[in-house]
Specification:
By secondary structure, the chain is an alpha+beta fold. Helix 2 crosses helix 4 and helix 5 packs across helix 8. The radius of gyration is 28 Å and the shape is globular.
């Protein structure tokens, strides 16, 4: 989670149903979403240095400016006991909800969940700001018409909206008149849902943005509302109380990315006519492609510090992708079962268990055939037949060498820059398949390949 402004606030904190035992402390949230609470003393009643129970399911607080805050899933990382002096303890917090207090066992449920990601304005590419310059008269007219919300129905019962927040010039504006606009996503459910339901969808949408922008972008500006939490707005009107939410979301990059639309794989304009179906296709893909997606995004987020680790994750990801999208085997199930029975009949009893283990996965196709099947739909973008065969062989030999370190494959495996280029080629294969997964037609994929500069650079290496 991106924390754009420093969050370090003092306040008083207590356990639910024990408000009389308030403890002063400082609540800090670092960029990335790491939350820590430093308190004077500890929440235990009396001295319990050997209790061993350092988990705190929920802490309530009242901090400067923000008011009430609820801290969930907490535990001590430092617990000091004083004998007449002042001691401090530290508590790690998994989630902070600023704006309200929940009871000890009360479920945290919401109806709406709003969030943004890095570079979302550039990806959406819609602005209500219109500037008309008259250079001859040295005048300028600025007009703002708020863009309409873009609404999409998700198959999980939620609604996803692309919304636009804005600020208009205040007064007096003698030297500056400023209009700002920012895009954000808004998930809505008619029935209250657990917070984890929303964060799960937000994680998948953030990954979609990472894929679309060909960059690791981070979640930010998260807030939620509930129909059960309303405040009086006057004139007999009630409004939902906005709750700011903080947690360590992934993916996260310390470096704030800067992307223009032509540096992205695709932007919203490329999918706007079929955006609802494409968002649903992506969310549905997690039902059967989650392991492959996880391996791909781990390489983009830099989880592997060394190039050979990145390569192995990509190779495993492609193999997993094919396993999840194809049930192809060497021979049909009945024929293989007959063959296994015949082989086992002639096996000495003392080797039977060993042979059964060997034959358990004997009907599966090997990595080379899986990669060939994966490349086939996009062969026109991946070089000549000879180049594709060389690519396939190099992936297999390098994977086998880095897995088994067989000396016979040492000279055949990719190393140095060749290994880096091989990783880029495998990323391209993933990119092309993910475009297909979310609903791009073949001719649309060809346009992406033609117009996307990052993808073209990777393809030049093939």
């Amino acid at each position: 989670m991106r924390i754009e402004e420093e969050y370090k606030k003092t306040g008083y904190f207590w356990l639910p149903e024990k408000e009389e035992n308030k403890i002063p402390g400082i609540l800090s949230i670092d960029d990335g979403g790491k939350i820590e609470l430093e308190i004077v003393g500890h929440f235990d009643e009396g001295l319990k240095p050997l209790s061993g129970d350092d988990n705190l399911s929920r802490i309530i607080g009242h901090v400067e400016k923000d008011g009430l805050v609820t801290l969930d899933d907490c535990f001590y990382t430092k617990k000091n006991f004083s004998f007449g002096g002042i001691s401090k303890s530290k508590v790690v917090v998994h989630k902070a909800l600023s704006g309200a207090a929940w009871d000890k066992d009360e479920k945290v449920v919401f109806n709406t969940f709003s969030f943004s990601v890095d570079c979302l304005d550039e990806w959406v590419g819609i602005s209500g700001i219109d500037v008309d310059n008259d250079w001859d008269r040295r005048t300028a007219t600025i007009r703002y018409d708020p863009p309409e919300k873009i609404r999409m129905e998700l198959k999980n019962g939620m609604t996803l909206e692309i919304c636009f927040a804005y600020t208009l010039p205040g007064s007096p504006n003698l030297t500056e008149a400023k209009i700002t606009q920012r895009a954000f996503f808004r998930l809505e459910s008619e029935n209250p849902r657990d917070l984890s339901d929303f964060t799960s969808i937000a994680f998948k949408i953030t990954n979609l943005m990472c894929f679309a922008m060909d960059e690791i972008v981070s979640l930010k500006n998260v807030s939620a509302t509930s129909s059960e939490m309303l405040r009086d707005g006057g004139n007999d009107k009630k409004y939902p109380v906005p709750i700011s939410i903080y947690y360590q979301s992934i993916p996260f990059s310390e470096k704030i990315p800067k992307k223009t639309w032509h540096e992205m794989l695709f932007n919203f304009g490329a999918i706007k006519t079929n955006a609802q179906q494409m968002f649903n296709n992506w969310l549905n893909a997690y039902e059967y492609l989650s392991p492959a997606l996880g391996l791909y995004f781990s390489t983009k987020a830099g989880a592997q510090k060394y190039l050979d680790g990145k390569f192995l994750a990509l190779a495993q990801g492609l193999e997993t992708y094919h396993r999840r999208t194809s049930s192809e085997t060497l021979m049909d199930k009945d024929s293989y079962e007959v063959l296994v029975s015949e082989v086992l009949e002639g096996c000495p009893a003392e080797h039977l268990d060993w042979l059964k283990g060997r034959l358990m996965h004997g009907n599966e196709i090997n990595l080379g055939k899986r990669i060939k099947k994966i490349i086939e739909p996009f062969k026109d973008h991946l070089g000549t037949s000879a180049e594709r065969s060389k690519l396939l062989r190099k992936i297999v030999d390098t994977r086998n060498y880095l897995t088994h370190y067989s000396e016979s494959l040492h000279d055949k495996s990719a190393k140095g820059r060749d290994l880096w280029v091989l990783c880029m080629k495998m990323e391209v294969i993933f990119n092309l398949h993910f475009l297909k997964v979310i609903g791009f037609a073949d001719e649309e994929i060809s346009r992406v390949v033609e117009n996307c500069h990052p993808l073209k650079r990777k393809l030049k290496e093939i």
